[in-house]
Amino acid sequence: MSKPAPSGDLAKFDDLRKIGEGTYGVVFKGVHKRSGKLVALKKISLERDNEGVPSMQLYLVFEFIDRDLKSLLDKLPGKRLPAKHAKSFLWQLLQALAYCHTRRVLHRDLKPQNLLVDDSGVIKLADFGLARNFSIPSRVYTHEVVTLWYRAPEILLGGRYYSTAIDVWSLGCIFSEMVAGIPLFAGDSEIDQLFRIFKILGTPTPEVSYFVYSHVTGWK
């Protein structure tokens, strides 16, 4: 089935077509009848464990943007952005991250494919499927987050107590890719990813090593 049957609030949209699917939902493209604007609708299934209670579906409506940073870079000479555009994108993304972090939200999956770019040069965070609320003191999280090339060292080492720093690390890797045209750390495994990071940035100092040894599981 390529599109949902229009019922209830869905009847406000025309020409609904499936354009993507992920772990946490299905995305449709449609036209808002009243405004005539293209929109993206993300259908999220909310499962209930209680016997006899049916599953629920939630639809989120977003503006429709059909270009992400990865596809934009792939079309540019050398796959790199002009300096002024890279600086503009970095500034916008820092503002977006600050907005999330001040509201105690970790994105946890920043990568070029999850950054949408419209025709006016505005770049936006997308795909909050792995996002989580964080607290102080920090709580335990899974380390199976963030695409490998943009994954912070503390996650690669098995750390399960982490902070907003993991998003900042990912954004730094993305900024480097925007200006250099190639991923900064393009590892093919977690250990290879760590070796590439250490090769460029150096190995942790004894003080950092002691702290890491005390807080993460993968540091031996």
Automatic annotation (TrEMBL):
<dbReference type="GO" id="GO:0005737">
    <property type="term" value="C:cytoplasm"/>
</dbReference>
<dbReference type="GO" id="GO:0007165">
    <property type="term" value="P:signal transduction"/>
</dbReference>
<dbReference type="InterPro" id="IPR000719">
    <property type="entry name" value="Prot_kinase_dom"/>
</dbReference>
<dbReference type="InterPro" id="IPR008271">
    <property type="entry name" value="Ser/Thr_kinase_AS"/>
</dbReference>
<dbReference type="GO" id="GO:0005634">
    <property type="term" value="C:nucleus"/>
</dbReference>
<keyword id="KW-0418">Kinase</keyword>
<comment type="similarity">
    <text>Belongs to the protein kinase superfamily. CMGC Ser/Thr protein kinase family. CDC2/CDKX subfamily.</text>
</comment>
<keyword id="KW-0723">Serine/threonine-protein kinase</keyword>
<dbReference type="GO" id="GO:0004693">
    <property type="term" value="F:cyclin-dependent protein serine/threonine kinase activity"/>
</dbReference>
<dbReference type="GO" id="GO:0030332">
    <property type="term" value="F:cyclin binding"/>
</dbReference>
<dbReference type="InterPro" id="IPR017441">
    <property type="entry name" value="Protein_kinase_ATP_BS"/>
</dbReference>
<dbReference type="InterPro" id="IPR011009">
    <property type="entry name" value="Kinase-like_dom_sf"/>
</dbReference>
<dbReference type="GO" id="GO:0000307">
    <property type="term" value="C:cyclin-dependent protein kinase holoenzyme complex"/>
</dbReference>
<dbReference type="GO" id="GO:0005524">
    <property type="term" value="F:ATP binding"/>
</dbReference>
<protein>
    <recommendedName>
        <fullName>cyclin-dependent kinase</fullName>
        <ecNumber>2.7.11.22</ecNumber>
    </recommendedName>
</protein>
<dbReference type="GO" id="GO:0000082">
    <property type="term" value="P:G1/S transition of mitotic cell cycle"/>
</dbReference>
<dbReference type="GO" id="GO:0010468">
    <property type="term" value="P:regulation of gene expression"/>
</dbReference>
<keyword id="KW-0547">Nucleotide-binding</keyword>
<feature type="binding site">
    <location>
        <position position="42"/>
    </location>
    <ligand>
        <name>ATP</name>
    </ligand>
</feature>
<keyword id="KW-0067">ATP-binding</keyword>
<dbReference type="Pfam" id="PF00069">
    <property type="entry name" value="Pkinase"/>
</dbReference>
<dbReference type="GO" id="GO:0010389">
    <property type="term" value="P:regulation of G2/M transition of mitotic cell cycle"/>
</dbReference>
<feature type="domain" description="Protein kinase">
    <location>
        <begin position="13"/>
        <end position="220"/>
    </location>
</feature>
<dbReference type="InterPro" id="IPR050108">
    <property type="entry name" value="CDK"/>
</dbReference>
<keyword id="KW-0808">Transferase</keyword>
